[in-house]
Amino acid sequence: MTDKHLWVIIMAGGLGSRFWPISNTDCPKQFIDITGVGRSMLKLTVERFEKLCSLEHIVIVTGEAYVDRVHQQVPGLAEWQVIGEPMRRNTAPCVACAAAVIARRDPDATVIVSPADHAIFHQERFFADLRQAVQTATEHRWIVTLGAQPTRPDTSYGYIQFRESSAANNTLPDNLFEVVTFTEKPPVEMARQFIASGEFFWNTGLLVWTLPVLQEAYRKYLPALWEAFFNPAPGTDHASLEEVYSQCESVSIDHGIMEKADGVYVLAASFGWSDVETWGSLYDVFRHDQNDNTVLGGNVFTYDTRNCMVALPNDPGKTVVLEGLDGYIVAASDDTLMVCRRSSEEKIFKFANDVELKQLIDKK
């Protein structure tokens, strides 16, 4: 794609706490080679989008503490292309801040919004779907999101309900649908009902819209954010980002805009996708050995071990032997090893908090 008005906003501000101990506040998962391919998830995301637009048209939003890390992992970015959020305010302020930067350079931009930490399979299908989404958003002035076909009642994903296009739009391609509702991380029974109905996609977090449509949506549905980022009052246009963020409401773009806006469509993704949100999701999407173990990194020997998710540092000086495990997560950082049942993954938050508390006590 050579459209000179195509831009990409990459959201890279998550903490990745579900991937403890590999991911932590010092180095969240988007900056880690968590998939074992030799490049971080952020680097993979940037490389992917460089096939659609130039590096000069990519804006990355991250935490203030990670700005230098972004520049280290993605050389060639100008200072203005990496925005350090002074505090976490969810996705709506994040996108507005980056879009305001783009607006000053290209008022006619078409903008793709993407998370930095998702796994994409079948690259060529990904590019084809995005080209279709960009063309649709540009020609019709719609908001287009991409939805993945759900394969299980996963409660860590958002869901998009869709319906067949209305009579007024009956010429639409058969992979494009009108959006009815967005539901964020439903309970498992609700997720089962969603999948059984055949009317829901997983929400990939990928959005495509033109900059004028984006700005109008903020003006209409999130007017305070529109004022803060797109229409600063006289004398306040040089306010620091910290001042602006301190007054922003914390709201997701799905809840703040997508659930309310007209002209929102979902394109059924034809590429393989995973919101790599948990150890369980990583286990589901990567290759298993003959005993249904997934081993990413490390010099690992397994005996009578099955159904395990193993992620260890690639340290040639260390060898790990696992025997007699069934259904466990074995994960390690340079200084912490965790072994827990896959069925107990929800306890990882407690493990991380307990370890952090103990470390703080020991320092006193």
Task: Describe it.
The termini are far apart. The protein has 11 helices and 17 strands. The chain has about 375 residues and is an alpha/beta fold. It folds into 2 domains: about 5-280, Spore Coat Polysaccharide Biosynthesis Protein SpsA, Chain A (Alpha-Beta Complex); about 285-364, no CATH class. It has a 5-stranded mixed barrel. Strands 12-14-16-17 form a 4-stranded mixed sheet, with helices on one face. The mean pLDDT is about 90. α6 (about 210-220) crosses α7.
Draw up the topology in text.
Layout: E1 6-12, H1 41-49, E2 58-63, H2 67-73, E3 82-85, H3 91-103, E4 110-115, E5 118-121, H4 123-140, E6 143-148, E7 158-163, E8 176-184, H5 188-197, E9 200-210, H6 211-221, H7 223-229, H8 241-246, H9 253-258, E10 264-268, E11 272-275, H10 279-285, E12 294-296, E13 299-303, E14 309-311, E15 319-323, E16 328-332, E17 337-341, H11 348-363
Parallel strand pairs: 1-2, 1-4, 2-3, 6-10, 12-14, 13-15, 14-16
Antiparallel strand pairs: 4-9, 5-11, 6-9, 7-8, 7-9, 8-10, 16-17
Helix pairs in contact: 6-7
Distance between the termini: 56 Å
Query: How many domains is the backbone divided into?
Result: 2
Give the CATH H-level superfamily of the largest domain. Spore Coat Polysaccharide Biosynthesis Protein SpsA, Chain A
Which sequence of strands runs across the widest sheet? 6-9-7-8-10
Classification by helices and strands: alpha/beta
Q: What composes the largest sheet?
A: 5 strands, mixed, barrel
Shape from CA axes?
A: globular
Number of strands: 17
